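Q: Could you fold this chain for me?
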Amino acid sequence: MKAVTTMVLITVIAGIVLASLHWQTQDAIESNTAQSEMERLEGLIGDDSLEELCERDIELIEVEIRGYGGPMVIVAARQNEEIIGVRAVRHTETPGFADVLEPDDWIGQFGVVPTDSIDAVTRATITTNSVLQAVEEALLDRGTVLNEC
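A: Sure. Below is the predicted structure, expressed as structure tokens.
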């Protein structure tokens, strides 16, 4: 009986310590996540602020969609009803398949090649089809506009 009481006491103390650590670090984690997502937008929007993008009539549209590995958050830059760039800011895709989401790989074609000429990649069909669907959603105003003008 003493062993059970000791084990319950250790479990309760460990739970309290973990809950306390979670509570103390939650703000820092959220801040770091937001900063990481903004860093992934580099090259898509350059050094422009969200207000400067509005002046250039550029909207950033965020679309959450399901990829092969789970939810993905895609941000599309749209100007005059055309996509001028796309970035994956958050995803859980399998390493290797996720390479197509790097700006210098497949996803970097958006804004360079006409959107209707971009095909899915054979080795990452689900991932790339999800991105193509997210871009279509952005064109149809079915996402969240990040820079309300």
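A (continued): The mean pLDDT is 86.
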